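Researcher: I'm preparing a figure for a lab meeting and need a structural model of a single chain. I don't have an experimental structure, so a prediction will have to do for now. The sequence is pasted below. Please return the structure as C-alpha cells so I can convert it later.
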Amino acid sequence: MAKCSICEKGAHFGHAVSHSNRKTNKMWKSNVKSVKVKVNGAAQKMYVCTSCLKSGKVERA
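Model: Understood. Here is the structure written out cell by cell.
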C-alpha cells in the first residue's frame, strides 16, 4: 500500500464490529494518487494524498 510522500499518511487498521458484536479485521485505505510534482524545479513522480493536493502543499508539474 502506498504512503503519502508529504504527510506519511497510509492505511489504518482496526475492527469492523457487527450488530452482534463480532469483530473482523478491517483496513481503511487513504486516498493516495501517483502524481507528477515539481521538486526543486524538476518534475518528479510521487505518491501524494488528495488532502495534500487540495491544500496546496505540493505543486503539480
